[in-house]
Design brief:
Elements: H1 5-33, H2 42-51, H3 54-67, H4 73-85, H5 89-101, H6 106-113, H7 116-128, H8 139-149, H9 155-167, H10 171-179, H11 190-201, H12 210-223, H13 226-243, H14 247-264, H15 283-289, H16 303-319, H17 325-339, H18 344-350, H19 353-365, H20 369-381, H21 388-400, H22 404-416, H23 423-435, H24 439-446, H25 451-454, H26 457-463, H27 469-501, E1 513-518, E2 521-524
Antiparallel strand pairs: 1-2
Length: 545
C-alpha cells in the first residue's frame, strides 16, 4: 500500500513520541500522580507495560509499587507475564502474590489461584525462569511459592517442571516427576511424552531410552498424534546416525527410518521423490511385505517428518558414490514440487529456511558453488528469506575452498540485507583467515568473538595453523585492547543516553516574564495573540506536522 510522505512523517513523529512517553510518564507520575492512589486508569497502566522496554518498565513498576498505586487484577496478570517473558521470575511472582493478597477469604484465594489465566501465568513464569540455565536450582523454590499461593499443580505445570529438568540435563528428576503423575491423579498427555522424548534424543546415548521411545511410538499411534510420531522419528534418526559408521550401515539406517516413517505417515508427499536410485524406491516393497498401515489409517506428516526424510536422502546422495548429478536432480525435483504446490505439507516446509539450508550445505561441501548460489536465489524467489545460517554456510564453503574474496563478499551481502552476524559467523571467518594466514584479519575478527569462545580448543587448534605465531599473539593482544576500549566507550555512551532519556521534561512557559520600561510598572507582560489593528487569519493545522 502506498503511503504519502505526510503519513510517513506522522508515523515517524509518533515513534519518537512513543520513545519519550515512558520517561515523561515517569516524571509526571513522581511529581504529580503518585500521592493519588487511583488517579491512573487501568488502561493507562496496561499501556505502560506495552510501550516500555524491560529495563524501563522495571523502573516504572518499582515507583508505582513504592507509592502504593492501585493496580487491578488483570493489569497485574499482564505485568506478571511481562516480567516472566523477560526471565525476571522474582518480579513475576511478586505480581502474582499481589493478586493473591487481594483475596478476602481462603475460598476466594484458592479460586483465584486456580483460574485458567492465573495458572497460565504461573506456567509462563516457571518456564521462562530457565532463560538462564544456571537458574535451574530455583525451580523448586518457584514451585513451592506457587503451592503457597494455593495453586493446584495440574498436568500443565508438571509438564513445565519436566521441561526444566530436561533442559538442565537432569533426566533422573524428569522421570521421577513423570512417575509421580499417577500418584497425584494425573495422566501424562502428548506434551509430556514429547518433552521427555526430545530430552532423551538430546542425550549422548539415546539408545539407553529405546524402551521409553517405543512406548511413545505406541502412544502416538493410539492417540493419533502426528507430532509425537515425528518426535519418535527424529529420535530414531539421531540414534541410528550416531550408531552408523560404515556405508552399509548407512543403507540399513535408511531402510529402518523409512519403515518407521511408514508406520505412521502417508507416503503421498514423498512419492514424487521415489526413483531407482532413491532410498524411497523401497517404499512400495516395504508397504506390501511388512505390517504397514493402509492409506486410510495414515496420518498426515508434519513438516518436521518430511524434513527428516529429505535430509536422509540428501545425506545418502552426498555420502556415497552415486551419480554426481543425483543431488542436483533431487533439488530440482524439490523446487518443482514446491512451485506447483504439489503437497500442502511440503509447501509449508519450503517456507522454512532449514530445508533450503540443508541443500545449500550439501552443495557447499561438494564445492559446487554454482548450484549453491542457485539455492540462495531460489529462496528469495519462493519468499523464504535467507537467514544468518544460510550466509554462514555459504561463507564457510568459500573459506574452505580458499576463496577469501568470495567469502568476504558473502559477509558484505549479509550485512547489506540487515542480517547481523552471530558468534558462529565470526568463528567461520576466524578459521578461514587462519587457513589463509591472514594475521591482520584475524585480529580484526577476534574483537567480535566472545571471551569464552577465545579459549575453545577447536579454535585454538585452528589458530595454531598460522606460521607466524608471534604476530598472531600480538594481533590478539591488540584486539583485546580495542575490545576493552570499545566497551568503555559503549558504556559511557549508554550512560549518556540514559541520562538524557531520563532528564526531567522541560515545558515552555505559557506566560513569559519580561521586564519593560512602562512608567513605574515592571512585571509580567502577556504577548497578545494578534497585533493591534491587524486582520487575524486563522488556519487549522495538523498537530503532528
Amino acid at each position: 500500500m502506498n503511503m504519502s510522505w505526510k503519513s510517513i512523517a506522522q508515523k515517524k513523529q509518533l515513534k519518537q513520541n512513543e520513545a519519550q512517553f515512558i520517561p515523561t510518564f515517569y516524571h509526571t507520575f513522581n511529581e504529580h500522580l503518585a500521592p493519588h492512589k487511583r488517579i491512573c486508569s487501568q488502561d493507562l497502566l496496561f499501556c505502560v507495560a506495552k510501550l516500555a522496554s524491560t529495563e524501563d518498565f522495571r523502573r516504572v513498576f518499582d515507583t508505582m509499587k513504592e507509592s502504593g498505586t492501585y493496580i487491578g487484577h488483570h493489569v497485574l496478570l499482564h505485568y506478571a507475564n511481562t516480567f516472566a517473558k523477560a526471565g525476571n521470575f522474582r518480579q513475576a511472582l511478586s505480581c502474582l502474590g499481589s493478586i493473591i493478597e487481594e483475596a478476602r477469604t481462603e475460598k476466594i484465594r484458592v479460586k483465584t489461584a486456580n483460574e485458567l489465566r492465573f495458572r497460565w501465568s504461573c506456567a509462563l513464569t516457571l518456564h521462562r525462569s530457565m532463560m538462564n540455565k544456571e537458574s535451574y536450582h530455583e525451580t523448586t523454590g518457584i514451585v513451592a511459592t506457587l503451592v503457597d499461593f494455593g495453586v493446584k499443580l495440574d498436568i500443565l505445570l508438571y509438564n513445565v517442571i519436566i521441561h526444566n529438568a530436561m533442559e538442565a540435563s537432569d533426566h533422573t528428576t524428569a522421570f521421577k516427576v513423570y512417575n509421580t503423575l499417577d500418584d497425584n491423579g494425573l495422566k501424562p498427555d502428548k506434551v509430556t511424552f514429547s518433552t521427555l522424548l526430545h530430552g532423551c534424543t538430546m542425550t549422548a546415548d539415546p539408545s539407553k531410552f529405546n524402551g521409553f521411545a517405543d512406548y511413545c511410538a505406541e502412544t502416538a499411534k493410539e492417540v493419533r498424534d502426528p507430532w509425537l510420531a515425528a518426535d519418535y522419528l527424529y529420535f530414531q534418526f539421531v540414534r541410528l546416525h550416531r550408531e552408523s559408521h560404515q556405508p552399509e550401515e548407512s543403507l540399513a539406517r535408511s531402510e529402518q527410518l523409512l519403515e518407521t516413517y511408514l508406520r505412521f505417515f502417508s507416503p503421498r508427499p514423498l512419492e514424487p521423490f521415489w526413483s531407482a536410485n532413491s532410498t524411497f524406491s523401497r517404499a512400495s516393497s516395504l508397504t506390501s511385505s511388512r505390517n504397514i498401515l493402509n492409506e486410510s489409517a495414515f496420518m498426515d506428516p508434519p513438516p518436521m517428518a518430511l524434513y527428516i526424510m529429505l535430509q536422509l536422502e540428501i545425506l545418502k546422495a552426498t555420502s556415497t558414490n552415486i551419480n554426481k548429478n543425483h543431488m542436483w536432480a533431487l533439488y530440482q525435483n524439490f523446487t518443482e514440487l514446491v512451485q506447483t504446490n504439489h503437497d500442502p505439507t511440503l509447501s509449508k516446509l519450503a517456507k522454512d529456511p532449514i530445508i533450503w539450508n540443508t541443500f545449500l550445505l550439501s552443495f557447499c561441501r561438494a564445492q559446487n558453488f554454482e548450484h549453491a548460489s542457485q539455492v540462495v536465489q531460489d529462496m528469495s524467489e519462493h519468499r523464504t528469506n535467507p537467514n544468518v545460517y544460510t550466509w554462514n554456510i555459504l561463507m564457510q564453503g568459500f573459506f574452505k575452498s580458499q576463496q577469501i574474496l568470495a567469502a568476504e563478499r558473502v559477509f558484505d551481502i549479509m550485512r547489506s540485507r540487515g542480517i547481523e552476524p552471530d558468534q558462529f559467523t565470526h568463528e567461520v571467518m576466524l578459521r578461514g583467515y587462519a587457513r589463509a594466514q591472514h594475521v591482520r584479519k584475524i585480529g580484526e575478527v577476534m574483537e567480535h568473538v566472545a571471551k569464552e569462545k577465545q579459549v575453545d580448543p577447536k579454535l585454538l587448534r585452528d589458530l595454531a595453523r598460522v606460521h607466524d605465531q608471534r604476530r598472531v599473539l600480538l594481533a590478539l593482544e591488540k584486539a583485546n585492547i580495542r575490545r576493552e576500549q570499545w566497551r568503555e566507550m559503549e558504556a559511557k555512551a549508554k550512560e549518556q543516553r540514559e541520562k538524557l532519556k531520563w532528564a526531567p521534561p522541560k515545558f515552555a512557559p505559557l506566560i513569559e516574564a519580561k521586564e519593560e520600561e512602562a512608567g513605574d510598572k515592571v512585571g509580567l507582560v502577556i504577548k497578545p495573540l494578534f497585533d493591534p489593528g491587524s486582520k487575524p487569519s486563522l488556519r487549522f493545522r495538523d498537530v503532528l506536522k
